[in-house]
Amino acid sequence: MTDSSDPTEPIAEATESAADSPGTTAGTTEMAADVSETAADVSETAADSSDSTAAPKETTVDFTRIGVDGDTVADVVSVLEGGRYVKGPVLERFEDRFAERAGVDHAVGVSSGTAALLLALRAGGVEAGDDVFVPGHTFFATASPVLALGAEPRFVDVDPDTYTMDPDALAEAVDGAANPAAVIPVHIYGGMADMGAIRGIADEHDLFVLEDACQAHFASRDGETAGAAGDVGAFSFYPSKNMTVAGDGGMVTTDDADLAERMREFRNHGRGDDGVHASLGLNYRLDETSAAVGLGQLAKVDRWNENRNLAAGRYTERLAGISEVRTPTEPENGHHVYHLYVIEVPERDALREHLAERGIETGIHYDTALHEHPAIAERVGDVDLPRSERLVDRIVSLPMHPAISESDVEYVARTIAEFYR
Ligand SMILES: Cc1ncc(COP(=O)(O)O)c(C=O)c1O
């Protein structure tokens, strides 16, 4: 591979005919050697944010692969040479194309997925003392913006099959709440929550619906696309996501022009088109260089998602015969984009060690239920969510990225089978 190669280009063909040994799998990694340095750097940062990835002695199957292609590098250079680094035309183009792909009227680029969630809640009128419903199984950042606004996160247990917010549990939680104001369904791992049922409850109680689509770029279910099935959708472009801006970045999507306007103002010091700071905003802008990378990634993300889906199908097929392993459930009538491929297993930590010793990186997403993080627990006190609490000891995320080869998937599945034999 040269510097200008696309690190996430499928490499299955090159290795499909390869022998089954781990040594051959290592050859796959060698092919991607020119990008693995970047990937290694970024996966360290990934561990700081939402991921906890094991560090095997000698990696032969990467957990993820991160990088940009030569065209994108050229696009970034062109922005750098042009001298316009913020509030420029590249961001506008990125927003327009993202809105078009998501099937919404407006998209607003922001500095991270966390900022996207915060701006959306602010624009949706969520205030101190309001109740905001969040699932018990997700990354910390689904709840931190709620707490930052002084609102009250109300935790809802997840569906045992899809790990997304259980609508029946939501209905119960809303009935028992004093100031129900908003709900944040999370499309965890790339599979959409049951938005039809959740919206039904939200409509009944006049809740603002904010989709946390940070892991689900263009997943779909029941004919709806992630980010277009609520009042606002929030996306992350963190490096390990299905598409990135080669740094931190995010996007909010909506059909509502007023909400879009409020989010645009809030990301830019509360300043309107007339130059007046009529509301109190901060700086949550997305840079032109980031937008240039995002545009390049957007053009490819559907193909990458197809590859992820294909790899997931292979995993599920290969793991089907291992009775200890519970493979992911795809929502009926939907397209799962497999940001992560997560299985449930007994003896999870011993299995991870077994895999790490054989060069297979894994992760845990997440090892703590949302309400049990100390920073949240001290604010909300005792919360009982048996399904979310049980999950965290049983889940393990297997290597997943658009370029994972068939032989790598087979090697991982075989190594898992060997552990339970
Ligand atoms: C479900 C979920 N919500 C929110 C976020 C926050 O996104 P960011 O890291 O871009 O702030 C992430 C990403 O880490 C996420 O996975």
Automatic annotation (TrEMBL):
Q: Which family does it belong to?
A: Belongs to the DegT/DnrJ/EryC1 family.
From which lineage does this chain's organism come?
Answer: Archaea, Methanobacteriati, Methanobacteriota, Stenosarchaea group, Halobacteria
Read off the CDD domains from this record.
AHBA_syn (cd00616)
Span of the signal peptide: none
Gene Ontology MF term list: transaminase activity
Origin superkingdom:
Archaea
Spell out the Gene3D superfamilies in the cross-references: Aspartate Aminotransferase, domain 1, Type I PLP-dependent aspartate aminotransferase-like (Major domain)
Report residue spans for region: Disordered: 1-56
Which portions of the chain have biased composition (kind: Low complexity)?
Answer: 36-55
Q: Which UniProt keywords apply?
A: Aminotransferase, Pyridoxal phosphate, Transferase
The name this protein goes by in its record: DegT/DnrJ/EryC1/StrS family aminotransferase
Read off the Pfam families from this record: DegT_DnrJ_EryC1 (PF01041)
